[in-house]
Design a protein that fits this description.
This protein has 310 residues and is an alpha/beta fold. It contains ten helices and twelve strands.
């Protein structure tokens, strides 16, 4: 059954505020003084609320007003509604001031566990009241996740044909991890093609690193032959150091105790880290990007090969 407008359950908060003020003041005249509005205008607003409710809410007395039975039933709910509305506004304002709320962005698991760690630590030092919600995506899914609004913004490879705001952040470098049984040549850079015939620790195709490693190897003239497959970047470095194959790992994801097994490549494969969003940067996104840009990032290596994925 169609409900007429005057019986709608959706009430104007201002009308509730006016009515509660009149109840608390004890009269329409006193309520008008508190609200700094003319008494006739306040009386009209009260009548509008009563029409919306469907009956009288105030009993007019010789020297004031008091709530009717319907008014007594409405009063605690009206107070709770007004208090909830005030809390909602305060929470939203605190979020805009970065005093509350959540920072929501998407990235790759390798970045979240590697290159982004210093910025995340700095964020929580600077904005302790704002939690962080990081959603992991594969390379091809990150752009879609931002487009669909699943996250506020993305941090990863710059998407192609992106119409929204985008800011370059830094370069990430892939390094070669070799078995512990093979000592690293001092000061000598390794040509990636020299390990073309080796077994490789490769990444699950569901993560973006798989495509980056394939692109780096193909640039060197070969396709990596899988010996072990993993979805964990940390595990790839450990498996390579243990002798199960060679691996390309983002520099910041190599565990400290395995840095001795890293080989510097003659043509280091690098890829651009960028931040991008749909229409405009939110206050949280802008603040986080400022922190990212404060971070000391390594310069793009000499003779580097830039990896780009479609």
């Amino acid at each position: 059954m169609h409900m007429p407008p005057e019986a709608s359950p959706f009430l104007n908060l201002r009308l509730l505020h006016y009515w509660v003020t009149v109840v608390d003041a004890g009269s329409v005249t006193a309520g008008a003084r508190r609200l700094s509005i003319p008494q006739p205008a306040l009386s009209r607003q009260i009548r509008t609320l009563e029409r919306a409710i469907g009956g009288p809410l105030l009993e007019r007395l010789p020297h004031g007003v008091r709530p009717t039975d319907a008014g007594e039933a409405l009063l605690p709910e009206a107070r709770a509604t007004l208090a909830a509305a005030t809390r909602s506004v305060n929470v939203a304002r605190a979020s805009l001031r970065l005093e509350a709320g959540a920072l929501s962005f998407g990235t790759y698991s390798s970045l979240a566990a590697g290159a982004l760690l210093p910025s995340l630590a700095r964020w929580h030092e600077r904005y302790p009241g704002v939690s962080t919600r990081i959603t992991g995506f594969a390379h091809g899914e990150l752009q879609e996740g931002v487009e669909r609004g699943l996250v506020d913004f993305g941090v990863g490879l710059p998407p192609r044909a992106w119409s929204g705001p985008m800011k370059p952040i830094a370069w990430d470098e892939l390094v070669l991890v070799m078995p512990a049984s093979e000592p690293a040549p001092r000061g000598k850079r390794v040509d990636l093609a020299t390990v073309a015939d080796r077994g490789w620790v490769v990444y699950d195709r569901g993560i973006g690193l798989s495509q980056l490693v394939t692109a780096a190897c193909e640039h060197a003239g070969f396709h990596p032959r899988p010996a072990v497959e993993t979805s964990q970047v940390d595990a790839a470095a450990r498996l390579a150091a243990a002798g199960l194959g060679v691996a390309l790992v983002p520099r910041d994801n190599v565990p400290l105790e395995l840095r001795g097994y890293v080989r510097t490549l003659a043509r280091p494969p690098v890829w651009r880290i960028s931040a991008f969003t749909r229409r405009a940067w939110s206050p949280g996104a802008s603040a986080y990007i400022d922190i990212l840009r404060e971070q000391e990032w390594p310069a793009r290596p000499r003779r580097a090969i830039t990896l780009e994925l479609g």
